[in-house]
Specification:
The protein is mainly α. The chain is built from 18 helices and four strands. Pfam families: MFS_3.
């Protein structure tokens, strides 16, 4: 148990964790209310409009990736978060006011969705990178996993409470409640001790996005991770569309939709806590989780009753969070600290920016062919993601015969590199420049000495 929560040894992380839980509960309440308002109050069960709202909300991270990553690397991340969290709180108050006064329209909601997206575009990379600033490098993967656990603990509570609040009080008051919960995160940020944050190298070179792209392009492992996450993010992680339309198919109201979101979080929380127990993030876990997501999604699409569908969502949530937590932890712990903000901005652009591509398609498929067809499409994307990861493992030489067993295979996270060959190819150390991508000192590399040739050969 102490191994699972080892990041709590840092005061700053403890404060952050509990502030994040409260804020995330409000965030999930608001997300549930926004989806339901668009689907049932501003339209007549129009999943396409819901997909357009998601596209506007998650599109800015992709459009602004060149700016947001550089901001996260160049400026004080705690100050960035104070600004973004305050902005999000003000936006929630504005939406609440329009809903309570019955002035809200679909075009206005689309505008606010875009504003939420812009604020989150700056908030997400700074928040993700700030997690590593609060703990030592050996605890970074654990901190990322616990951060995901915090997010999913809130997801377990927020949607169910939000659904009940919509029925009992109205959607406008849910936005009021979310605005109040932002105060928890703002107070936590003010309590954090700046002197105890981990020192991080500054990288003030121009062309922030170009440097980040060159770095990722020079890391085939990161390229594979990004492609896998993009496929599932675009076509498989449109849960608001899937769960809300399935709730309507089973003749449920907002509270039934909220319960489905909370059930999904049961598996998500379990996946996050198990990820916290691992010593480091591994690509093989990401690959297996992607395959599990594909299978679980396709099975869930075949369920004939509300209860059976809810049960399968536990496995969907487990595989989803295992995949995302592993991918996030791998990116953070194997990336050059000076470029972490920019690389994380690219990662968040892939995760969140995939939604503007996939959500409208998923919404259209749900309208035209039914929600089960849209869910199945997401499951196929998961299986394709697994195939890409497995193919890369085979191509990169990470799958090989075990040394102590003739007929057994082992999967290695690193490709063997001969020391002699490496020295032959690079007699002098490489010059680091904008034309030559920086290689992360934390990228795991396993070296093997060259064995002498047998005299009989």
């Amino acid at each position: 148990m102490s191994q699972m929560f080892r990041s709590f040894g840092a005061f700053n992380y403890r404060v952050w964790f509990f502030g994040a839980i409260i804020s995330n509960i409000g965030g999930w309440m608001q997300s549930t209310a926004q989806d339901w308002v668009v689907l049932t109050e501003l339209t007549h069960n129009d999943a396409t409009a819901m997909g357009a709202t998601m596209a506007l909300q998650f599109g800015p991270p992709l459009v602004l990736v060149g700016l947001t990553g550089r901001v996260a690397d160049r400026f004080d991340r705690r100050h960035i978060l104070l600004v973004t969290q305050s902005t999000l709180m003000v936006l929630a108050v504005c939406v609440a006011t329009l809903l309570l006064t019955h002035v809200m329209t679909l075009p206005l909601m689309l505008v606010f969705a875009a504003c939420f997206g812009i604020a989150n575009a700056f908030d997400a990379p700074a928040r993700q990178a700030f997690v590593s600033d609060m703990v030592t490098m050996e605890n970074a993967s654990n901190a990322v996993a616990l951060n995901s656990a915090s997010f999913n603990m809130a997801r377990l509570i927020g949607p169910a409470v939000g659904g009940l609040a919509i029925v009992a009080l109205g959607s406008g008051w849910v936005f009021v409640a979310n605005a109040a919960t932002f105060l928890a995160m703002i107070v936590a940020l003010l309590l954090i001790r700046s002197r105890e944050l981990m020192p991080r190298p500054k990288n003030r070179r121009s062309g922030g996005l170009i440097v980040g792209l060159r770095y990722v392009r020079g890391r085939p492992d990161l390229m594979v991770v990004f492609v896998m996450v993009f496929l599932i993010g675009a076509f498989g992680m449109n849960f608001p569309i899937f769960a809300s339309t399935m709730a309507l198919e089973f003749h449920k109201q907002a509270d039934g939709y909220g319960v489905l979101s909370s059930v999904l979080a049961i598996g998500s929380l379990t996946g996050a806590l198990l990820a916290a127990r691992r010593d480091r993030a591994r690509v093989r876990v990401l690959m297996i989780a992607a395959g599990g997501f594909g299978v679980a999604s396709i099975v869930s699409a075949q369920m004939p009753t509300y209860v059976l569908y809810a049960v399968t969502l536990v496995f969907v949530g487990f595989s989803t969070v295992t995949m995302l937590t592993t991918a996030n932890g791998y990116v953070q712990t194997t990336t050059d600290p000076a470029l972490r903000g920019r690389v994380l901005a690219l990662y968040m652009a892939v995760v969140m920016g995939a939604t503007p591509i996939g959500a409208p398609i998923a919404g259209w498929v749900a309208d035209a062919f039914g929600p089960r067809a849209a869910i199945t499409m997401g499951g196929i994307a998961g299986l394709l993601s697994f195939a890409i990861g497995a193919g890369w493992m085979l191509y990169s030489g990470r799958l090989h015969r075990r040394e102590d067993a003739r007929f057994l295979l082992t999967l290695d996270e690193t490709r063997p590199v001969s020391i002699v060959e490496a020295m032959d190819r690079a007699v002098t150390p490489p010059i680091i420049s904008t034309a030559n991508p920086i290689t992360s000192a934390t990228t795991p590399i396993r070296t093997e000495p060259r064995l002498p040739k047998d005299d009989g050969e």
